[in-house]
Specification:
The chain is α/β, with parallel strands linked by helices and 361 residues long. It has a domain of 246 residues: Glycosidases (TIM Barrel, Alpha-Beta Barrel), CATH 3.20.20. 47% of the residues lie in helices and 12% in strands. It contains 15 helices and ten strands. The strands form two sheets. An eight-stranded parallel beta sheet has the order 8-7-6-3-2-1-10-9. Strands 4-5 form a two-stranded antiparallel sheet. Helix 13 links the parallel strand 9 and strand 10. The N and C termini lie far apart (50 Å).
């Protein structure tokens, strides 16, 4: 049986499990951390002092027994950051698995490379890898990242023409799967990827968008079922592209394939990556995105915010960081996640400000 067809049953299972987990909801004050060479006891003592209660951690750290032991002793919750369709290493080994844009080329821009989301063998490997991590290391949560279709949103600015955003995947597997699931037939007269993509987008765009969203939602469902079979009380967080529903002509679904309403039913938290300075937005925009996600999902929203400069050279001041934190913590937000611990330690003034704001809550 095609795994895509199991989605309704998975929704029923996961809605119940998620409701059970949310009974113990608390505000999350978290940081993303990818590596740490110093003593772990000092790290977590610092977090306790600063009001940090959750680490969103690389798989390498989650796999470190000493790290996990110390985190538990210091009362720190741990989420493993788990990328899904971003996988340049796998693509380098097997170029044929790359997602294909509407122009017929691999879905790639600078460092961002995505795998075709219809590949059952790859999806199975991802699910089993998530299961293995949870079985062996027992993190408190899994934070599902790159769970979307290809788009280099980090360099999508407010003035961007929506028509220039990339659309994928149009490889032979996705085209066949789309037609099989929807019972829509692309005319045989079209031979090239650009021709087929153009016909679909002009004649069947609504069905195409719905099918693409379902590819993403079903991947979340499969991962969540697997990890909760290993650890029934595990928490699930989903990284969201930081777009409001109507931004860029509905690109959150049309381009990224993220239906926040459906994703909320399968998860405990939704975490829009509201890196305002990076995408040339004001700090107040963060609160706007949180409200949008909450309004359209009813879920628990924990925005992720940036600490240091990224992609842009213009100053990211202490005052802008203050406004960023204040906007991120406004209701209906249920906390904040910093990107990242390494960047926070590189700017002591921001670390002190963060501590002052969080401990005053």
């Amino acid at each position: 049986m095609n795994r895509q067809h199991t989605l309704p049953a998975l929704f029923l299972i996961l809605s119940f499990l998620t409701a059970c987990n949310l009974e113990q909801e608390e505000q999350i004050i978290g940081v993303k951390i990818y590596e740490h060479s110093g003593p772990y006891d000092q790290l977590f003592a610092s977090w306790n002092t600063m009001g940090i209660n959750t680490g969103f951690c690389s798989e390498d750290l989650i796999s470190d027994q000493a790290f996990m032991k110390e985190a538990r002793e210091k009362g720190i919750s741990t989420f493993v950051i788990f990328p899904v369709f971003f996988n340049p290493e796998a693509i380098a080994e097997s170029p044929e698995i790359a997602a294909i844009n509407q122009d017929g080329n691999p879905a790639a821009e600078e460092w961002v490379e995505f795998v075709c989301p219809s590949r059952e063998d790859y999806r199975h490997q991802v699910v089993e890898h998530a299961r293995q991590i949870v079985r062996e290391h027992k993190p408190d949560g899994i934070s599902i990242d790159f769970i979307r279709h290809f788009v280099y949103w980090e360099k999508v600015y407010p003035e961007r023409n929506p028509a220039t955003l990339p659309l994928s995947c149009f490889d032979s597997l996705c085209l066949s799967h789309f037609q099989a699931v929807t019972e829509i037939s692309v005319p045989d007269s079209f031979n090239t990827v650009p021709e087929k993509a153009d016909w679909i987008l002009k004649n069947q765009e609504e069905a195409w968008i719905a099918w693409r969203c379902q590819l993403i939602t079903s991947m979340v469902a499969q991962i969540t079922v697997a990890v909760r079979e290993e650890k029934p009380d595990i928490l699930v967080n989903i990284h969201l592209v930081p777009w409001a529903r109507d931004d860029f002509d509905g690109a959150i679904e049309r381009v990224a394939g993220q239906d926040v309403g459906d994703l909320s039913k399968l998860s405990d938290y939704l975490s829009p990556m509201t890196y305002a300075h990076m995408v040339k937005q004001s700090p107040s925009w963060i609160h706007h995105i949180v409200e949008e996600v909450y309004m359209h999902s009813g879920g628990t929203v924990i925005p992720s915010v940036q600490v240091g400069k990224a992609y842009l050279d213009n100053e990211y001041s202490l005052e802008e960081f203050r406004e960023t934190l204040e906007a991120a913590l406004q209701p209906p937000s249920s906390g904040v996640v910093l990107w990242s611990w390494e960047r926070l330690m590189a700017e002591p003034e921001k670390a002190d400000l963060f501590k002052d704001i969080v401990t005053a809550l």
